């Protein structure tokens, strides 16, 4: 299977990039403020959360608005990719019934699109770090393995969602509930390990989103080294998850066309 | 002995698990829906030499489209094999299509890439495609703004200009208005007349099949009834349908 995977990625990589580029372009062409929305969207949510949680609930985190912005950027990437993967086979019926291609390429396209938007968000994070004069250490380089892990984890989950999304009609309803729960257990606008009594530390380890986001904050904002053991563990897990997802899709993808 | 372009052996395809499943229904009723199985193709075997043109006839729902999709690699067989000997293949069919939010130009590129052409090859031919499709400035507008005629013109132009080794045509011998119909029919004749091109045409247009095809394959109720000389098979088919 690895051999086939390697050949397929080589063969369809260009297609996935071209497709992502075309979709980003179309998105820009159709909206009034076009690409500004990619920045405005997380920026607005950051403002809301900063007001609500910074002033109303009186959060004590330093660099609170960047703290939130990092959380939103990474969460949005995962959230958007997963939500869109559930229906991606049905929505891409036109392409799916045109020619054969491995169906996880549909997810890869989403990962490129949302990843590109996330990178723009991180550009904004960089600018904000300069404005707020955040002291920088070499630890910011951990953003690379952290984002790789996030990408792999998201891809792996999305593969399974794509597969079951073909057959299970109401999967997206269930997914929305689950994602909302994970959203609150991830600490986009608070620090999971200090705010949640007793379980906080543990939750920060067993919820990959919470771990990755807080690791990113440690590296970028607080000059700390993330827990490399846990990062490696989540990377390994994500890799296995992604491979299992691809395997699942390879086995079943030919019946997708019959089901839609 | 001449070379085979398409070899289909003991091909069977069934549709199963067609009914989708809902978590809610499952909870409420406490039972799983049994997947219904429907045999769409049963034990089909035939070979086609390079350059041959095969007509595919049969009544609605007999399995013609399924067979073309299997040859195009969109379905894999439940049993049996399809061997194309490394030839590139396209399926030209109604409703097989484009990403609506993207422009015609982007769709040319993306469809071409899925058909196995490189970006460079497609870009070098895209002007020709745009000209043939007669879309003019609409080519840079989203496909969702196209009329159905424009849609099929673009679809046809891509297949006609990019020229894969094997072309599979499902019920689209004529698209567009009367003039484009004539032009596309001419182009089709020119395309399938080329020595190395292998073509399968599924059509209810008896006259076109008789005129274009070297051989005809007749499917009825998922099974191969007859394959052979055009005139002979069509006569049997006509007799059967009457």
The CATH topology of the largest domain in chain B turns out to be: Rossmann fold
Distance between the termini of chain A: 26 Å
Overall tally of structural domains of chain B: 2
| H/E element sequence of chain A | HHHHHHHHHHHH
Cα shape of chain B: globular
Report the average pLDDT across residues of chain A: 88
Main pleated-sheet profile of chain A: none
Q: Report the oligomer.
A: heterodimer
Radius of gyration based on Cα positions of chain A: 19 Å
Tell me the total number of β-strands of chain A: 0
Describe the structure in your own words.
The complex is a heterodimer of chains A (260) and B (242). Chain A has 260 residues and is mainly alpha-helical. Chain A has twelve helices and no strands. In chain A, helix 6 runs antiparallel to helix 7. Chain B folds into two domains: 4-87 and 165-241, P-loop containing nucleotide triphosphate hydrolases (Rossmann fold); 99-163. Chain B has helices spanning 23-29, 64-72, 104-114, 119-133, 148-162, 178-193, 206-212, 230-241; strands spanning 4-15, 38-49, 53-57, 79-83, 89-93, 166-170, 198-202, 215-220, 223-229. In chain B, the strands form two sheets. Chain B has a six-stranded mixed beta sheet, with helices on both faces. In chain B, helix 6 links the parallel strand 6 and strand 7 (198-202). The interface between A and B is medium-sized, with 30 and 36 residues.
């Amino acid at each position: 299977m690895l051999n086939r995977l390697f050949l397929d990625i080589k063969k369809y990589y260009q297609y996935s990039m071209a497709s992502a580029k075309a979709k980003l372009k179309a998105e820009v062409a159709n909206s009034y403020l076009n690409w500004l929305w990619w920045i405005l969207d997380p920026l607005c949510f950051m403002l809301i959360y900063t007001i609500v949680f910074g002033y109303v609930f009186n959060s004590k985190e330093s660099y609170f608005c960047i703290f939130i912005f990092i959380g939103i950027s990474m969460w949005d990437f995962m959230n958007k990719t997963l939500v869109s993967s559930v229906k991606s086979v049905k929505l891409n019926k036109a392409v799916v019934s045109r020619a054969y291609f491995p169906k996880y390429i549909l997810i890869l396209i989403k990962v490129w699109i949302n990843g590109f938007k996330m990178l723009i968000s991180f550009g904004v994070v960089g600018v904000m770090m300069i404005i707020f004069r955040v002291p920088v250490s070499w630890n910011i380089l951990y953003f690379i393995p952290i984002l790789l892990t996030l990408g792999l984890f998201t891809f792996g989950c999305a593969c399974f969602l794509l597969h079951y999304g073909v057959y299970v009609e109401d999967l997206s309803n269930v997914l929305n509930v689950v994602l909302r729960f994970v959203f609150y257990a991830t600490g986009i606008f608070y620090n999971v390990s200090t705010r949640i009594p007793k379980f906080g530390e543990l939750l920060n380890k067993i919820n990959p989103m919470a771990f990755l986001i807080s690791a990113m904050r440690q590296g970028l904002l607080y000059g700390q080294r993330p827990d490399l053991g846990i990062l490696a563990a989540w990377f390994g897990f994500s890799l296995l998850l992604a491979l299992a997802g691809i395997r699942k899709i390879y086995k079943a993808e030919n019946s997708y066309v019959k089901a839609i | 002995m001449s070379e085979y372009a398409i070899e289909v052996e003991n091909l069977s395809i069934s549709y199963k698990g067609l009914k989708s499943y809902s978590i809610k229904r499952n909870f409420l009723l406490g039972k799983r829906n049994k997947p219904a199985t429907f045999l769409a193709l049963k034990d089909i075997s035939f070979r086609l030499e390079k350059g041959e043109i095969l007509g595919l006839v049969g009544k609605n729902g007999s399995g013609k489209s399924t067979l073309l999709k299997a040859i195009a690699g969109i379905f894999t067989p439940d049993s049996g094999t399809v061997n194309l000997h490394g030839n590139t293949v396209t399926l030209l069919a109604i409703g097989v299509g484009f990403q609506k939010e993207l422009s015609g130009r982007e769709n040319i590129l993306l469809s071409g890439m899925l058909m196995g052409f490189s970006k460079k090859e497609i870009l070098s031919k895209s002007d020709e495609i745009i000209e043939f499709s007669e879309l003019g400035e609409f080519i840079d507008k989203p496909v969702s703004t196209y009329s159905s005629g424009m849609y099929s013109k673009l679809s046809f132009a891509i297949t006609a200009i990019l020229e894969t080794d094997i072309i599979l045509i499902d019920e689209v011998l004529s698209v567009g208005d009367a003039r484009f119909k004539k032009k596309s029919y001419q182009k089709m004749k020119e395309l399938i007349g080329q020595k190395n091109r292998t073509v399968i045409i599924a059509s209810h247009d008896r006259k076109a099949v008789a005129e274009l095809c070297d051989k005809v394959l007749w499917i009825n109720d998922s099974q191969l009834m007859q394959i052979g000389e055009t005139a002979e098979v069509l006569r049997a088919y006509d007799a059967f349908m009457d």
